[in-house]
Amino acid sequence: MLSAIFNDMWNLNYSSTSEIAEVLSSHSLAMTKKFGQNFLISPEARERIVSLIKPQEGDEIWEIGPGLGAITHLLLSRGASVKAFEIDHGFAAILRSEAFADEDFTLIEGDALETLFSLPPTFSSIVGNLPYNVGSEIIARLIERVYLPPVMVFTLQKEVADRMAATPGSPDYSSFSVLTQLDYINTRAFIIKAGAFYPAPNVDSAVVVMKRRNESLVPPDERTLFLSMVRALFSQRRKTIRNNLLSSKAYSSRGKEFIEKAFASASLSGNERAEKLSFAELIALMRALEA
Ligand code: SAM
């Protein structure tokens, strides 16, 4: 009882909602909905996540949103060095001065959307039970800023995980699928039911493993152009690629005739929906539009 608070050693039972609640109340803290704070109280799920990261002695693992350290302590116990990015100042104080003060642990306090990119990308891998409100934004930014470790393992809303692992033509395929598959092969590893979190969210979650490709699907010098074309093509899901390009500022100025020629030279009709196009078709269209 209250072991995490009164012992010298930090040994909070991360599966016990009453111990978590006591630690929070003894620090006058409360969970904040706006930061997507749902602690993972299932020990099996935590172990499975860590086994997907495969931490090795000496690895530098970046963790986004450590909370009270439910996953962090497992990574540290495997000999990894952990850099954690946490926005909640109350949690940050506990992590820094009580939980992991004597460990190979660095805490970067603040909004991960900013703080991640204030450091050079020295990571071996990135892991995070991501807050619902900014999870996909964080992943998008890592990719756009080319912060690309060999492996990333994220816990996300199931529907976001489904989009990341979707194939062209499936109902879940979106511009986020294209963005996250550019450099990675994404696999939905397992589902975590809402009841495995405290407090329980409204929806189930899933763990996605992102394994970096040997080579990006789009050459580095065409990456920016590719991503801006993808944004234009997917801007309105119900519209055809013709209508999306014609209503985009970047492409409409080139004229309808030019755009029709580009479709023809990419072997497209223009009546397709963006979510049906493969990477090869998207790349062919990008090149035709620049011809
Ligand atoms: N890792 C813990 C676990 O699995 O039990 C907590 C996960 S909880 C879903 C998300 C964590 O991300 C919370 O600790 C929250 O304060 C933190 N967080 C939310 N928004 C953040 C942001 N923009 N930058 C950094 N951390 C954030």
Q: DSSP strand (E) fraction?
A: 15-25%
Strands of the biggest beta sheet: in what spatial order? 4-3-2-5-6-9-7
Largest beta-sheet details:
7 strands, mixed
Q: How many helix segments?
A: 14
Order of helices and strands: HHEHEHEHEHEHEHHEEEHHHHH
Q: What is Rg?
A: 22 Å
Helical content class: 25-40%
State the low-pLDDT regions, or none. Answer: none
Q: Quick one: how many beta strands?
A: 9
Ligands bound here?
Answer: S-adenosylmethionine
Shape descriptor: elongated
Mean of pLDDT? 95
* Distance, first to last CA: 70 Å
SS class: alpha/beta
Q: Can you describe what's shown?
A:
This protein is α/β, with parallel strands linked by helices and 291 residues long. It has helices at residues 3-6, 17-26, 43-53, 72-77, 89-99, 112-115, 135-144, 158-165, 175-181, 223-233, 241-246, 249-252, 256-265, 279-290; strands at 39-40, 60-64, 81-86, 105-109, 125-129, 151-157, 184-192, 197-198, 205-212. α13 crosses α14. The N and C termini lie far apart (70 Å). It binds S-adenosylmethionine. S-adenosylmethionine binds at residues 35-40, 65-67, 70-71, 85-88, 91, 111-113, 129, 131, 134.
